[in-house]
Amino acid sequence: MRSRTILCITLMVLVLAGGLTAAPRELLLNVQSAPLAWGDTRLEEKVVRELGRNPDLRVRTAGLENGSGPHFPANRTDVDSLLNWGLEMGGRYLLTVTVDEYALERRKGFSLPLVFHKWETVGVIRGEYRMLDLHKGRMTAAEPFEVEMSGSRQFQFSTDDNRADPSLHITAPEKRKFFGKLEEKLVKHLVEKVNRLTRGR
Predict the structure, then answer these.
(1) Which of 165, 50, 159 has its CA nearest to residue 97?
(2) What is the DSSP string of 183-195?
(3) Sign for the pseudo-dihedral over CA of 178, 168, 35, 26
(4) How far apart, in whole angstroms, are the C-alpha atoms of residue 34 and residue 44?
């Protein structure tokens, strides 16, 4: 009976100790985005919100505008500079997201020769993300991203072939909403990558 009591106490101590070591790990986030012609980008805010749903991570934004601490490295591709900066800031991970372009493109899609074809307006966000494990002193991922979403589309007879068809136009207010949804698609992609890279580490 006594040995069983000792075993129970030992197990409780181990569980409590495990709980103490399972404190959220800090992820430093830096987002640099090309200007969005149709409104303000809220990409950083959305990434913080979605990553904040992971109980194992505590997210801290780290931009050039921060008054305290060292300035973020000007060269976003210099791994040594990023590692040194992240360690000085005291994080466990560093995620940099660089958006190079927000674009609206007109593309010709499916066609039936001499009968009809399809024109569509497609929204695109292009850039790159980098994930660094600061404790291990290495970069765990560096990948370009390109997320797309179809907007308006129009089937035309082959004799028309008009990429300037008014039906393909998206108004300015619609563009703001459209790119807001496209940013959410990008955020989902990034969060899936981050959760996979930090799971169990």
Answers:
(1) 50
(2) HHHHHHHHHHHHH
(3) positive
(4) 12
Q: How many residues does the chain have?
A: 201
pLDDT by residue for the chain (201 residues), tens only, comes to 555 444 444 444 444 444 434 457 999 999 999 999 888 899 999 999 999 999 989 999 986 444 567 889 999 999 999 999 999 998 999 999 999 999 988 776 665 665 566 778 889 999 999 999 999 999 999 999 999 998 765 544 444 555 555 555 678 888 899 999 999 999 999 999 999 999 865
Residue 63: enclosing H or E segment and its boundaries? Answer: none
Query: Which one-letter amino acid corresponds to residue 99?
Result: V
Answer whether 139's CB lies under 8 Å from 90's CB.
Answer: no
- The one-letter amino acid at 46: K
Listed in sequence order, the residues at least 6 apart from 182 whose beta carbon sits closer than 8 Å to its beta carbon are: 123, 125, 147, 148, 149
pTM exceeding 0.85: no
- DSSP code for 158: T
Which tokens go with 55? 């109980």
Asked if 36 contacts 46 with a C-beta cutoff of 8 angstroms, the reply is no
